[in-house]
Amino acid sequence: MINIALDVPGGDFSQKERIVGAVEALKESKNLKVFLVGDSKLIEGYFTELKLDSKLLSRLEIVESKEILEMDEQPSKVLKEKRNSSIAIATELVKNGKCSGIVSAGNSGAQMAAALFQLGRISLIERPGIAIPIPTVDRQIVLIDGGANVDVKARNLYDFAVMGGIFSKIAYKVDKPKIALINNGTEEEKGNKLTKEAFNLLKNNLPNFVGYIEGREMMEGKADVVVCDGFTGNVILKTIEGVGLTILSFLKKDFKKDPLKKFGALLVKDTLFTLKKKMDYREYGGAPLLGVNGISIISHGSSDSLAIRNAILLAGEMAEKKIIEKISEEIKIYDNLLKKD
Questions:
Q1: What's the pLDDT tens digit per position in 75-106?
Q2: d(Cα 87, Cα 28) in Å, to the nearest integer?
Q3: Can you list the domains of the chain with their CATH numbers?
Q4: Model-wide pTM > 0.85
Q5: CA 2 to chain centroid
């Protein structure tokens, strides 16, 4: 049985959404157990309301925490003033080995702080990175770092590339993921000091490195793993989300303009639904913080039950396929390659 800790209070929606998500994940995967960290009386009330059967209840365990770290509070509070908050206790369950991973839709800064200081970093990894799933025409790719590190060194980008490649193999079943580095052009002479230094590291040490990639090429799926600093990655992510919502909003508005367009909308209804689903963050559940010594899935603050279900399933799959051990092993191999340069 794989145990996953869920931060029940964390998120914008009702706590019931997180509990329903946990239940749906258990229905999907029989080898999962979820530890629900939060107010026991509130959670038990939802159990009664949902009329859960004994088999499901046996795979749900409540861990008491009445303290909540709000979305707008300073992340550092999780380490000082609110060590009994649900997110801190859920992370502690991973640290002490009772759970393999944590899922939270709460304060993402606090989750990263808790992961860093409670779980610690994997040996040889200086900076963890957030691996963001990005939809392209025919598959998902990985963008790393999606926002954990504003300022980085070339070695950090190298580590992101290695970890992103491992995650791509596990999450998207890519045998030999192609790795690229975000830049303002594909020519080797382009870029700033950081990207040029990182380019040489990746080119000389990663057999699947395909060079620089521009933003538009990324969306065409020319690489399976796209590497950048967290500032750039977060801007890319928010831009993609904004463009996707704008396109869907425009189409919806335009189709209502006259009867002929409404008829056309009916003809492409399935295609539009597929597009919407591809752009829907709920389908991917959350983004793993790679490089810490435990599985930590950062979910969107407005995650509903579907998103939480998928986040828990992702955490379970990562635990089952031992991603932490694989990152630890492979980073040693690639570190040795660097020493030979």
A1: 888 888 888 899 999 999 999 999 999 999 99
A2: 25
A3: 1-125+291-321 (3.40.718.10), 126-283 (3.40.718.10)
A4: yes
A5: 19
